[in-house]
From TrEMBL:
UniProt protein name: Olfactory receptor
G-protein coupled receptors family 1 profile domain boundaries: 39-208
GO MF entries: G protein-coupled receptor activity; olfactory receptor activity
Principal subcellular localization: membrane
Localization terms from the record: Cell membrane
Protein family per UniProt: Belongs to the G-protein coupled receptor 1 family.
PANTHER family: OLFACTORY RECEPTOR (PTHR26452)
GO cellular component, one term: plasma membrane
Keywords assigned by UniProt, alphabetized: Cell membrane, G-protein coupled receptor, Membrane, Olfaction, Receptor, Sensory transduction, Transducer, Transmembrane, Transmembrane helix
Length: 208
């Protein structure tokens, strides 16, 4: 059995070790983050303040904006900090939190099969599917639209989507960090995610 030691932190791989490239990356990601964050916040405020937009479609659009904000806030600022300070280390608890929030943020966007493949994450596809159903009802059953998709139904669908994603994410995060990490502790990306953690784990996961 290989000699194992507890990994207390992970090394994130930045885009480059060149200082000029790091500064360029910081500026580009800062601009992209501010645009995305501001755009999603504006969507939320416009929908809240405009009573004409208090419809199921815009209700789910607000939920999508929240998932986008959570996702970019979980991944982009840390990447910018790595480029600005050249400190590529992330603590074990920080990596756990990042994995949990990344999966939760995007968990509804994908179908079950894609989620199982860890390619993306769970919150948006569920909401996109619900929004497609919302448009179907509005077009095909306009007279029954307000009855079928009332606010109670919308709230139940959104809560179900978020709760199911949180449960799934909790399970995946717990299972991932029960693995042994004995080194090297280098994650081949600029944020923690499950596929990269599986690559550096010394636990045999081939039969799992």
């Amino acid at each position: 059995m290989a000699n194992q030691s507890t990994v207390m932190e992970f090394l994130l791989m930045g885009f480059s070790d060149d200082h000029n490239v790091q500064l360029l990356h910081f500026v580009m990601f800062l601009f992209t983050y501010l645009v995305a964050f501001t755009g999603n916040v504006l969507i939320i405020f416009v929908v809240i303040l405009n009573h004409h937009l208090h419809t199921p479609m815009y209700f789910f659009l607000v939920n999508l904006s929240l998932t986008d904000i959570c996702y970019i806030t979980t991944t982009v600022p840390k990447s910018m900090a790595v480029s600005l300070t050249n400190n590529k280390m992330i603590t074990f608890p920080g990596c756990v939190a990042q994995v949990f929030l990344v999966i939760t943020s995007v968990c509804s966007e994908l179908s079950l099969l894609t989620i199982m493949a860890y390619d993306r994450v769970c919150s948006e596809l569920s909401l996109l599917t619900i929004m497609a159903y919302d448009r179907y009802v509005a077009i095909c059953h306009p007279l029954q639209y307000s009855f079928i998709l009332n606010w109670d139904t919308c709230n139940q669908m959104a809560v179900t989507s978020w709760v199911s994603c949180l449960l799934y994410t909790s399970l995946q995060t717990v299972m991932t960090f029960q693995l042994n990490f004995c080194g090297p502790n280098t994650i081949g990306q600029f944020f923690c995610n499950i596929p990269q953690l599986l690559k550096i784990s010394c636990t045999d996961t081939k039969n799992d």
